[in-house]
């Protein structure tokens, strides 16, 4: 049972090292999440439990893996951006993809009950992932803008669509017909005139998706200490600075976000 | 907020279609499972609960995804072999890898309690995956032989190692020193003379790992039917043939296995 | 002027090793050879000088490079098949492609005058190349059949087309119109009834293209030797066996060719 | 002889499109040029004929192919830099590599006699090529600096080595031993003290290699024109601006070159 006789098969594994000095983006999507959402009675057009669970999983991915500078999520997708200079696992593409999706998938089941309470998880969900390189900062910002523009377009559509179905009693097909060919302005107008909804007042999380960045956070913790010459422990409050993954629901298409958080794109970050 | 302005970024995604007419192997491994095993009190050298859970996850992967002809697992790793002719997702490498590992990872958490009962899962585990192509049937058989030979070598070592630690009271370092430079025959001899263990009588699952194949299985189910001219339902037993994923613990290095199951390698399977 | 400061740029070169145990095909095509043929007054539909020069270049490629088992050429293209087991330059794709096309291109200019005599070469021609892997022998045979079928289809068309232009005085556009929608049988019929040409009697090189294989060839050479006990040299004829690249113009689509030359596909060849 | 039955083999060709928005560098090297140089009696350490022929070939490549922004050559190698935004042949790597090396190789034979006069070309030379991507301008500049630093190091070594052999009568092995472990300063000192050579006065082409860039050049040409109301043609001089490939022998490691020719790296160039 000589191992060596068979070991030649290792030579068939291809080297999939990614080009250095490029931003590495891994985007994952839920597999068949349309069906999954129905079976688990997700609220339409947005289910807070599902969105918060997605973000919890993405935070876990950022904390467990290395070199993720920023993540962006909406609906059943999340994009993770690894630093240009990352040398994690020698930049092997398969490592980045599989670590991200497996950590995300196991976290999804693990944290499910924290968000869905009595709503039982019926089966283990799947996710697919892909990896894309972006050579310049502008390319990366455009990628994230593309995803956020996509979030906006879909959410505006879904918001009107479900109002027409839920409040006006249209069938899904009728609602679809009604929206056929409408522009953003038309949809805003329907929302306002028919449902008294100002789209711009809809929750930011729905309209902008979720941005995850690393932030220094001051935590006040209570410690028990015993001072010299005293016999009893005393409780004192200590302020500790930690770096945490923080969710934001803001515009990332304009320049303001990047001016406010220059460290995200900083070469040596 | 024009989407089109940013959509050029889609053009940065590379085509990762795999060469046609080759066996596609996706192998996954637990991430930091040494630590994970300790924290979850896995029995040494083999934990039946952990092995059965791995196999349950692999079965789920085979049932949920398409075109998997055979799978082989041992310890914290599993290999999935997709058919040569598979056109699943246009043979895009990233799709194969991420679907396998994400389905496996979510299943691991989902089915955990069925195998580990009161042993709580402390955190969501990660898995990494890789993809390798094998052009010929012989290459594929040699790949699987390589993994099974690896199983044998590791299990023999671990069996003696843990006997020395658990029964003879050696420290891990002492046990390691004792086994340094020993051949398979030496290890068998230690097991036999010092612990009265005939290695060949150890459970096949430990020595051979687990092979998963598709098998036609006859199931006898009870159906309630109402015959014409009768007013009451009657219970009858019906035999139904289904194709199921079946675990085997047998040698796959020799020819016998492949002669017994020729359909696994059959071109049109 | 420290070299080391810049040497990091070497790390940007990707590993392009080809999958082991697959046939490696490099196919090259003349760049803008339609224009090139006109400017150098190639005879239509086939120019023997040009075809023989192509084959001379291909023979040079086979002799200069390593591990080429067979080559096939027609018109301004040539395909080179490297052995499945070849480890030449660690199977790096770029090495195979660039060595083939550069050797072919320099040979084209070098040997031009041997075939084109007084017809001056006006400028240095370019060639493009690509590389494709074929996992099975059948795939490889089908690849070569594809090229030979292409040769047949194009040559039949061109033979009729140029007859219509050269003998019947049609303009190229008229000839094209005449042939629009015709099947092979129609074209054979035009050749026979209008030009008294039996297509099957056209030269094999035009209809089948050129196959290059390695053959043992007996050469009779004259050597001067001095026998013991004699004082003068004597001329003797010696038969020497050499392995040479030999051109054939035969069918390679059917089984007969492969049965006649089994060594081409032999694993250990 | 149905073509369609075999056409499936086209599906085995992999998509080798290069990542957008990166500099594309193709570097070629002479194959076995050590032997080639000896057989063609190249002058040591530098043969002007050979260097000028290399540059003539590189100019031809730049003129015949598209989107080459700059080229750099030394010894028997040349690097061609294609623009970041180039969409030539859909950025397929094989196209870039094979067009460059085949055009270079055919030009080498074609223009040989213009530089080597009576020195016959004995056989057609080969070249190998590779392709590398550089995401940032700095990466590209560092790549070119790497090649120029390499030129300097090799040329300084070769200059001393051949002085020791040609003037001091050392054998190659003795010269090699003498130079073992010497630093740049030591080599400069040997040249100066033993051969009265100030290395910095050596020709720039040897020390810096050759940079090829596109330059607007004013050409004064003589045209025959016939003015209205005149009956005879008159010769007039006309100044015409053309874009030509111009060779420079200057430092490209420092900033000055890039400040002087900002258009080379300009995004829209």
From TrEMBL, chains A, B, C, D:
Binds 2 magnesium ions per subunit. Pfam families: Thg1, Thg1C. One of its GO terms (molecular function) is GTP binding. Residues 138-254 form the Thg1 C-terminal domain. It comes from the Eukaryota. GTP binds at residues 29-34, 75-76. It catalyses: a 5'-end ribonucleotide-tRNA(His) + GTP + ATP + H2O = a 5'-end phospho-guanosine-ribonucleotide-tRNA(His) + AMP + 2 diphosphate + H(+). Its EC number is 2.7.7.79. Mg(2+) 1 binds at residues 29-30, 76. Belongs to the tRNA(His) guanylyltransferase family. Transmembrane segments: none annotated. The keyword DNA-binding does not apply. This is tRNA(His) guanylyltransferase. The keyword Calcium does not apply. The gene is THG1L. GO terms for biological process: tRNA modification. Mg(2+) 2 binds at residues 29, 76. Homotetramer. Interacts with MFN1 and MFN2; functions as a guanyl-nucleotide exchange factor/GEF for MFN2 and also probably MFN1. Keywords: GTP-binding, Magnesium, Metal-binding, Nucleotide-binding, Nucleotidyltransferase, Transferase, tRNA processing. It comes from Nothoprocta perdicaria (Chilean tinamou). Its cofactor is Mg(2+). Adds a GMP to the 5'-end of tRNA(His) after transcription and RNase P cleavage. This step is essential for proper recognition of the tRNA and for the fidelity of protein synthesis. Also functions as a guanyl-nucleotide exchange factor/GEF for the MFN1 and MFN2 mitofusins thereby regulating mitochondrial fusion. By regulating both mitochondrial dynamics and bioenergetic function, it contributes to cell survival following oxidative stress. Residues 6-135 form the tRNAHis guanylyltransferase catalytic domain. It is an enzyme of class 2 (transferase).
